[in-house]
Design goal:
- It is a single chain.
- This protein is an alpha/beta fold and 376 residues long.
- Helices cover 40% and strands 12% of the residues.
- The radius of gyration is 20 Å and the shape is globular.
- The termini are far apart.
- It binds flavin mononucleotide.
């Protein structure tokens, strides 16, 4: 049995990763912003959602296969954009892209990827390019061109990072990138590599590089600038989701950045319950922040998502065992999802949309969602 195969859950992979990662890198990955209330709330809210399983529905042909952005995917899952993956393993994003291609799911490359996009599309799977809007618009649009030329199949604009939030672990650790880990598409200059006590060098670099002036005009400009499907990542308000559909956006990602941006933001799963019915099929709705199991994927499907992004689970796999570790993470989530689908009476991913749930936050009634009512 290989090292990665000894993990039977994402929690097992996280423990393996903790054995090999330096404390500051582990903190960079695991941590959230501020007092981490949103990081905790994501998990608590997912755990509250319980499913009403159906029976006698012939699940002998149960399949996790689906489509994402109109293209086939073996799971309703894509890897989330994650910066600087070479801090976790020497192969970095290349290992993740290869494992995603082998698993038949899309890989998302971050603007802050530490491996160049051309090497990642050469891995052969569907590659989405995540865009951080830079202060220099011409350079931003050059990145879009470069992603298109490299063969990416979608552009995902992240809209919840005007700047990086205060992440206290990184501040206390003075988190700094080692010299060999560089943003392959940007000049990280000295900022990301200069250690200063009580400063996150990664946050210092992004403050220099990213624009905080994004508006819906930026979205319109991006929409005009590419023929590829466009996703907006980092939406939590139904009003913003509806607005996105007016701009010809192909998909939104309901996300609070894994609890790494606004501390105190609501859990993404509660937002999803309101947003999916509000969008009403006008664009695809994806979900992230806190997905750790196949049951979490089922929860998101039941609340109207067509798929999820996974961030930290993939990173724990990468740190523990490189490409084999990422493969194991995706294999575990896939096996758990097949279990969860079949055991809830769903032979297909689409069937999960009609499952009923309990446990949505009562403070936020799920307009149009179908909570299971319990007798008074
Ligand atoms: C270490 C790390 C780096 C990240 N880098 C990016 C990034 O470059 N761009 C982006 O849009 N999101 C980034 N994210 C957020 C993820 O794309 C995703 O929204 C989040 O991790 C989902 O939550 P999960 O980790 O609980 O699955 C990052 C997350 C982590 C943990």
């Amino acid at each position: 049995m290989t090292y990665a195969a000894s993990a039977h859950s994402i929690a097992d992979l996280e423990r393996l990763a903790a054995e090999v990662l330096p404390a500051d890198v582990r903190d960079f990955v695991a941590g959230g912003s501020g007092g981490e209330s949103t990081l905790r709330a994501n998990r608590a809210a997912l755990d509250r959602i319980l499913i009403e399983p159906r029976v006698l529905r012939d699940v002998s042909g149960c399949t996790t296969a689906t489509t994402l952005l109109g293209r086939p995917s073996r799971l309703p899952v894509a890897t989330a954009p994650v910066a600087y993956q070479r801090v976790l393993h020497p192969d970095g994003e290349l290992a993740t892209a290869r494992a995603a291609a082998a698993a038949g799911v899309p890989f998302t490359a971050s603007t802050l990827s530490s491996v160049a996009i051309e090497e990642l599309t050469a891995a052969g799977g569907d590659v989405w390019f995540q865009l951080y809007w830079l202060r220099d618009t011409a350079r931003t649009l050059d990145l879009v061109r470069r992603a298109e030329d490299a063969g990416c199949t979608a552009i995902m604009l992240t809209v919840d990072v005007p700047w990086m939030a205060r992440r206290l672990h990184d501040l206390r650790n003075g988190f700094t990138l080692p010299p060999h880990v560089r943003a392959a598409h940007l000049d990280t200059g000295r900022a990301a590599h200069t250690h200063r006590p009580d400063v996150s060098a990664v946050a210092a670099h992004t403050a220099q590089a990213f624009s905080a002036a994004l508006t819906w005009d930026t979205v319109a400009l991006l929409r005009r600038s590419t023929r590829l499907p466009v996703l907006l990542k980092g939406i939590l308000a139904a009003a913003d989701a509806r607005r996105a559909t007016e701009f010809g956006i192909d998909a939104i990602v309901v996300s609070n950045h894994g609890g790494r941006q606004l501390d105190g933001a609501l859990p993404s799963i509660d937002a999803l319950a309101e947003i999916a019915p509000a969008v009403g099929g006008a664009c695809e709705v994806l979900f992230d922040s806190g997905v750790r199991t196949g049951t979490d994927v089922l929860r998101a499907l039941a609340l109207g998502a067509s798929g999820v992004l996974v961030g930290r689970p993939v990173l724990w796999g990468l740190a523990a065992a490189g490409e084999a570790g990422v493969s194991r993470a995706l294999e575990l989530i896939g096996a758990e999802l097949r279990d969860a689908l079949g055991l809830s009476g769903c032979a297909t991913v689409a069937a999960a949309a009609s499952l009923r749930t309990t446990g949505l936050s009562p403070a936020r009634p799920p307009a149009g969602a179908r909570p299971l009512r319990t007798a008074p």
